[in-house]
Each structure stands twice: as C-alpha cells, then as structure tokens.
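Entry 14. Ran structure prediction on the chain below.
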Amino acid sequence: MNNHLINDKNYLQYKEKVTHGTPMLPFAQYHTKISEMLPFQPIHWHEEMEIIKVQSGIGTVSVDGIKYTAEAGDIFILRPFVMHAINRLGDNEMTSDVIVFNLRLLGTGEADMCTLKYFAPLLNEKHSVPCIVRPTDSWYHPFDQSMTSILMCDSAKDGAELDIKANLYWMFYHIYNNRLINAKQNIAEDKRLYTVRRALEYIRSEYMNEITIENISKHCGYSEFYMMKLFKQFTGESVVDYVNNFRLTVAGRQLRDTKDDIATIAYQVGYNNISYFNRQFKKQYGMTPREFRASPAGRVD
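Output, structure tokens:
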C-alpha cells in the first residue's frame, strides 16, 4: 500500500486549503469509512479533482446539492471546486478509496496545447465531467482498471509518479473518447453556488462563536429567507443542522487527538452548555463524549 494512504480518521481533517501530495506529485490517496462512529464527511470543496470508488456497503454522496445513492463499485468523479459530502444512509456502513490530485499534474506548462484543450476548462470551471460512473455503464471497466491500478501503485518504487500519471491520462482519455464532457453555461447557478460557499467559509471560520442566520445572511448579502432556502437546496441541511454537525465533527476529532477535558472541547467548538453538548454528541455518535474517547473510534492507532 502506498504511503499516501491514510486511515479514515485522518480524512476528517481534510479541508479545502490542505495541500495534497508534493510539488513533484500533487496527488494523495485516502481510505474512508462511514459508520455509526463516523457518520459523515462534512461538505467541502477544493481546487483539486477528486475520484471516489465505493468499495463496500452503501451511503450517499452529495454533489452541488444533488444527493446520489452510492453502492459498491460506483465511482464518483468530482471536478475542481465542486461542493461535496459523504453521509451515512440509514444504519448502513460504507467504505471507499479516494484519490485527490491537482490537474496541473497532467500538464507540462501553461502553453502546452494539451493542457489548454483538455484540462484548463475543467480547472477554470468551464467544463464539467460525469459525476457518477456505475458498473452497468459501457465504459466503466476500462475506467475502473485505471482507478484500480492507481490504488495498487507502490509509491516507493522507481517510476511510481509516471505510473500514476499514465493511469490518470487513461481515465481522461475514456472521459473524452466517450464524449462525456459538458460545457457549464448556467451563470445563475454558479452565482448561487458561490453564495453557499461563502456561507460555508463563514461557518468554518466562526464555528467556535455564536452563529445566527442573520450573521450569515449579512455576510453573504442576502435576506435571511433566501439564505435559508439556498443553503438547504445545496447542502441538504438547514443552517442550524449543518453548524451543529460541523461542530460535532470537530469535537470528535478533538476528543480523539487531544487530552483536553470534555468541557473545554465543548467550549472550543461553540457549545456553552455542557449538558446540551453531551446530548447532541450522543445523538450524533450513539455514545457520550466520554464513551467515544474510550472507544476504538476515539483512539489514535
């Protein structure tokens, strides 16, 4: 297994501004598990492309407000800057392997004609790719072969960078050869997405403080009613639910990664009432913060 692979716990720390890989190989690989212990990956976005292959189980993947049921074998192709999240579906668990890479990895320079033709439009959000590839699709198997080759690549071997790049090129070849690229022309939709991104950025920077829909609406320049409707449309959650879930995700990470007492962690993530924090945490994780810290999910391997 290559050294870019990290466990599903570390993947919770994955945020928009994280640098994936190295300057020589801006590429990273992750393994994730959505379960009762870790029920979701919060909605986020980044400059890199992301490809997710569901390895087992069933869950949901949300992409720019559209929720897809994800089953074993499904592959999700996420263009740069797309908003996405992974969530539990009912009582089911789901595991997946994820690769994240900067499209500049596949270009030789800004003046490279191949880069300008095939990759720049994706990076500049002018083109979109198919969101989901299912095993029943005619071009699934050659695409899946390239994905599997990347996941099995030993990054320590000589030429590993070339192996990864070659398989990424094959993936894009299948996308373009099957005429699956679409031109993005919905300017109004892009504006709405930008507004939701601003709201999410505000929450991520202010989650430890009091957050109200009034604050978010003023920050984004829209009425409270419109902001609530827009947020729900593109995230699938109300502002209150998203803020609560985000805080609990951070709290779970803090319980796992630090020795801070529970009351301190509750305060750090925006809860002033420890009893309320304990109730919300148990509702989300199925156990109290103390039980979580003592469980396998709450311990660093």
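Strands lie at 27-34, 40-44, 49-63, 66-71, 75-78, 84-88, 94-101, 127-128, 132-133, 182-183. Will compare against last week's run tomorrow.
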